Amino acid sequence: MLQRLQHLLGTEDLTREQIAFILDQARPFQEFHRHPLKKLATLRGKTVALAFFESSTRTRISFATAAARLGADTMNLQAESSSLKKGESLLDTVRTLEAMRPDGIVIRHTSSGAPEFVAQRLNIPVVNAGDGTHEHPTQALLDALTIRDRKGKLDDWNLTILGDILHSRVARSNIHLLSKFGVRTTLCGPAMWVPRELETLAPNVRRVFRIDEALNEADIIMVLRVQSERIHEPALAPEEYILQYQLTPERLRLARPDALVLHPGPMIRGLEIDPAVADGPQSCVLEQVTNGLAIRMALLYHLVGGSPVEAPEPAKE
Amino acid sequence: MRVVEKRQLLSAEEIGRTLQRLAHEIVEKSGGTKDLALIGVRRRGVPLSQRLAKTIRDSSGVALPVGTIDITLYRDDLSTVGPQPIVHSNEIDFPVDGRDLVLVDDVLYTGRTIRAAMNGLFDLGRPKRIRLCVLIDRGHREMPIEATFVGRTVETSDTEIVEVRLQEIDGEERVMLVDRVA
Question: Would you give the DSSP letter of residue A135?
Fold first, then answer.
């Protein structure tokens, strides 16, 4: 029935049942965070390698905390570390990490497909913590958990995603995940960030360029960060972006009255989101962070805690 | 490997009478119901704890707090073979600090489940006391753990299995001794 997960590389290949299973398994860990003593020995003696080839604060801390609360140790590789600057290849770096015998590896990389490349070559579970503009599956899972908790179900909502969708792995993972539950997605942002190809990502995806129209009937609004580090030339002056696309309290009133506002963080208040919306009752920003811990604990428990996976096919090089 | 039923240990009526007696023993040995709370160990400890609470409410008029504990994250045999067991939530909606807790389970065997349940309880706070109530004690302990309240003590060999079937979970009500034969 439930096909066992060996890695988590993206949401595109997950089935509805696998997604529901992961969300259900996060539930006990959500409750666990209310315990006075937040430390388990479940993964005692296990080691999780956190290989962040691209800098990250929030996701790295979330995975490190999830591992620590399950009793696992972590080995940390950060983008600033010297071996990466010395020009070592991705494969050599991860093989070096593997030689220290971790029981699982969490990878973030600037190149799309890097976690899959590693998963094909190493004999341990791989979790994608964000790869290029491809996927960020744990973010989509924690978003789904947040939506399911607040709205009681995941199915059939109207989702509006605002901002730089072209460069957003968060948007891609969310579109793949939520479309499996019949969610209708509206993408809205400056035209060069919302190319036509995005409509073919999943069923029921459309593009709308006027924010007023995009927010109409929305049940869930995902605001993306304006990612200055991914844009080589400022495509649009910040003042222009604010004027056309900032989620303000007035614009939020165009959505359904019980619409949720999600943001993957870090938020730039006053740019993509008005502080009054970020701190308002419809905002789920802090729940998203707490739910991220629960999702990551559930995944590490099932992926890293299980028996070793069989040796993969010999590497094809 | 095949499983054969060797004999019935308790009928539905005997289970009912045993639980009545255990409920009275719990109140009697606790000198009343002050601070008392029951914690059922998933899975079959849960309906047993609820039935004990109902019996105590019927006889003394006191509704004891009842909770549920899932021991999955505290097991000592994880990651040996195959996929990880599914985790369930605890349902304990009262503070355990200072409480006089009675853990309730169907069968006491190696004692490892109860060790795990106690570890789980300690993560929730600091109970005043923890005692154990089981329907069947079948021996073969691997931990220094004993039950204060025992429904029936049964001599078993280590190839035998005590199967407790409860109406709420199994749709029938009896306790059987079964054996594995090659």
Answer: B
What is this model's ipTM? Answer: 0.84
What's the CATH code of the domain at B34? 3.40.50.2020
> What's the alpha-carbon Rg for chain A, to the nearest Å?
19
- Are B74 and A298 inside 8 Å of each other by CB? no
User: Whole-prediction pTM value?
Assistant: 0.90
Question: Please, what CATH class does the domain formed by A137-289 belong to?
Answer: alpha beta
Instruction: Identify residues of A whose CB sits under 8 angstroms from chain B CBs.
Output: 4, 25, 27-29, 31, 35-37, 39-42, 46, 298, 301-302, 305-307
Do B87 and A307 count as a contact with CB atoms less than 8 A apart? no
Counting the structural domains of chain B, the total is 1
**Chain segment B4-63, per-residue pLDDT in tens:** 999 999 999 999 999 999 999 999 999 999 999 999 999 999 999 999 999 999 999 999
Residues of B in contact with A71 (CB under 8 A): none
Q: Is residue B106 part of a domain?
A: yes
| CATH, domain range A16-136+291-304 | 3.40.50.1370
Q: Regarding beta strands B174-181 and B160-165, do their DSSP bridges make them parallel or antiparallel, or are they unpaired?
A: antiparallel
C-alpha to C-alpha distances, A239 to A166, A190, A235, A236, B62, nearest whole angstrom: 21, 13, 12, 8, 66
Q: Compute how many other C-beta atoms are within 10 angstroms of the C-beta atom of residue A110.
A: 14
Domain boundaries, chain A: 16-136+291-304, 137-289
* Nearest by CB: A306 against B84, B90, B122: B84
B94 near A CB under 8 A: no
Residue B35 belongs to domain spanning: 12-73+88-158
Share of chain B above pLDDT 70, in %: 98
Which residue from A280, A251, A242 is spatially nearest to A263, judged by alpha carbons?
Answer: A280
* Domain presence at residue B34: yes
Of A25, A37, A42, the CB nearest to B78: A42
Give residue-wise pLDDT tens across range A221-268: 999 998 766 555 556 788 889 999 999 999 999 999 999 999 999 999
Residue B5 lies in a domain: no
